[in-house]
């Protein structure tokens, strides 16, 4: 019995992500990933029992790299609106890449694969919403007395994130209306 290459799930994901970034999700195959890793096809299947499992990790990695890992850091004293503007800029860039490269291919996944991809995406978005809450809470100019009920940090930041996504998807990457409303709602006039 010869020596089998030892490869981690992370190395397999790295190769799959590189292949998908280069040729799209449709071009991603277990065989090509195995070839890129210089391992047998079965080795890839040991880490990823189905192609859907692999695609879902690739999609999760896309969102993590595009947004969650590059998300602006909330520093005490920073302006919440400036934080949101930078996040909107990054989101706009990420959605453009995602649309161009992978959106149609994700829609072609079977129901189970699509549900798993959405779950990975939502985990990334939850991380971003937590970052928005942190940025809001660290902005010393926010009027704290206004942050209650529907405007408490968590529901407000969920609304901000959903509104940013919607604005950008509908061609308004500046999110001017949202940011104007925020400025007049959570800051002193």
TrEMBL record:
Pfam families: TetR_N (PF00440). SUPFAM superfamilies: Homeodomain-like. It comes from the Bacteria. One of its GO terms (molecular function) is DNA-binding transcription factor activity. The lineage of its organism: Bacteria, Bacillati, Actinomycetota, Coriobacteriia, Eggerthellales. This is TetR/AcrR family transcriptional regulator. Residues 29-48 bind DNA. Keywords: DNA-binding, Transcription, Transcription regulation. Residues 6-66 form the HTH tetR-type domain.
